[in-house]
């Protein structure tokens, strides 16, 4: 039987918490260190596709997630006037894969992950400033002067990962060419039906929404723009003007949007290069390893997959360093494909020229539905198989 190494996780987001939960599930010892002051309520909505739901089902979370989220039955894309471009049978594809797809608030998902961990595994106000191998393990040193040693360190500290910078130096992510506003609206209108993930595409503009519960809607808007040189703040008033003539219910949702919930981020990604992975008994998961654009809704889903693959490799391979390299090798092809595919989807959907948008819309409308459905199925098909039927 493989002796399970001890694990340190830097970062208490979705990837880090799922790593800790997956390692806890096989009997491993794990500690999580998060630099924020406590559990975050910040964030907007998130979509959990079957490839993520299967992993979370392995961890016994299916019932809680289904109770807290809205199951998706259909994906709809239109132009800005509401003329249909494509429909995707999300529910039937998800069930054929033995799972479901959910829309859920990010903070709700984080809360469910935290509650599933044993008490005391997460320490807040812990910013990792240096890591080192001292011959007895890998040591994490924190800004408050404290240190912690374990056999394995997993960096899950996001796009601007401090640990990634320590290992690889400056490897800045690529700007994807657009800005993304996200937010929550208190909106009970029936024109945002439960079970539908909706997007409208215009010229260099995109708007999407998913119902989270009977009263709340998650919305996002993307706008093609040069990379900002300084920090920029959300501008809900401007968004209301920009989208005022778009199809219903977009203007009404923005009118109901909570200004305090609105976030604004430039969108970046970074290819998952073989020379920018882990070293020794340290590795990366999620955005620390492979940030991708949100165009396919796969960023968090791939982080969740990372956690399952990492746990499986560490539990199966006796040497921790060999286990981490096996994890990276297994994940490399799939994650890189997702990074490229997400970026291409963003390029297509953010076209700014009139002729480019006309060509894009025409091609999508003329593509057989079975091909579009097959492409979606390939995207969300689980890479990690369930160990038992946790999908129902």
Number of domains: 1
Strand order of the largest sheet: 6-5-14-15-16-13-17
Please state the average pLDDT score.
93
CATH superfamily: FAD/NAD(P)-binding domain
Unreliable spans are 388-392
What is the 3D form? globular
Largest sheet: 7 strands, mixed
Radius of gyration: 21 Å
Helix content: 25-40%
Percentage of residues in DSSP E strands: 15-25%
Which structural class should the secondary elements be placed in? alpha/beta
Quantity of strands, as a count:
18
- What pattern of helices and strands is seen along the backbone? EHEEHHEEEHEHEEEEEHEEEEHHEEHHHH
CATH class: Alpha Beta
Supply the CATH architecture: 3-Layer(bba) Sandwich
* DSSP helical segment count: 12
Structure overview:
This protein has 392 residues and is an alpha/beta fold. The protein has one domain: FAD/NAD(P)-binding domain. The chain is built from 12 helices and 18 strands. Helix 1 runs parallel beside helix 5, helix 1 runs parallel beside helix 9 and helix 2 packs across helix 9. The longest helix is centred in the C-terminal third of the chain and has 30 residues. The protein is globular. The protein starts with 6 loop residues before the first strand and ends in a 12-residue tail after the last helix.
């Amino acid at each position: 039987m493989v002796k399970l190494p001890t694990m340190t996780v830097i970062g208490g987001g979705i990837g880090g918490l799922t790593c800790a939960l997956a390692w806890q599930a096989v009997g491993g010892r794990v500690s999580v260190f998060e630099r924020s002051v406590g559990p975050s309520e910040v964030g907007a909505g998130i979509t959990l596709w079957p490839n993520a739901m299967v992993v979370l089902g392995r961890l016994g979370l299916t019932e809680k997630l289904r109770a807290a989220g809205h199951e998706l039955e259909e994906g709809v894309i239109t132009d800005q006037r509401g003329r249909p471009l494509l429909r995707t049978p999300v529910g039937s594809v998800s069930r054929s894969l033995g799972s479901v797809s959910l829309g859920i608030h990010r903070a709700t998902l984080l809360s469910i992950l935290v509650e599933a961990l044993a008490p005391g595994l997460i320490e807040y106000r812990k910013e990792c400033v240096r890591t080192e191998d001292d011959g007895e393990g890998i040591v994490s040193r924190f800004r408050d002067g404290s240190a912690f040693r374990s056999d394995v360190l997993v960096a899950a500290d996001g796009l601007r990962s401090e640990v990634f910078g320590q290992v690889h130096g400056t490897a800045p992510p690529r700007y994807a060419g657009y800005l993304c506003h996200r937010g929550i609206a208190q909106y009970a209108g029936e024109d945002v039906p439960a079970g539908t993930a909706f997007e409208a595409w215009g010229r260099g503009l995109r708007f999407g929404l998913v119902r989270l519960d009977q009263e709340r809607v998650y919305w996002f808007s993307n706008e093609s723009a040069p990379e900002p040189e300084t920090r920029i703040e959300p501008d809900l008033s401007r968004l209301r003007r920009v989208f005022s003539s778009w199809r219903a219910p977009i203007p009404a949702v923005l009118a109901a949007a909570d200004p305090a919930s609105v976030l604004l981020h430039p969108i970046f990604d970074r290819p998952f290069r073989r020379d920018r992975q882990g070293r020794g008994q340290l590795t990366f998961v999620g955005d620390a390893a492979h940030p991708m654009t949100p165009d396919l809704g796969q960023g968090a889903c791939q982080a969740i997959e990372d956690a399952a693959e990492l746990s499986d490799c560490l539990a199966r391979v006796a040497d921790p360093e060999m286990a981490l390299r096996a994890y990276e090798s297994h994940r490399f092809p799939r994650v890189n494909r997702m990074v490229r595919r997400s970026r291409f989807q963003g390029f297509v959907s953010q076209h700014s020229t009139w002729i480019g948008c006309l060509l894009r819309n025409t091609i999508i409308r003329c593509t057989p539905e079975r091909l579009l459905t097959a492409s979606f199925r390939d995207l969300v098909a689980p890479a990690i198989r369930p160990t038992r039927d946790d999908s129902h």
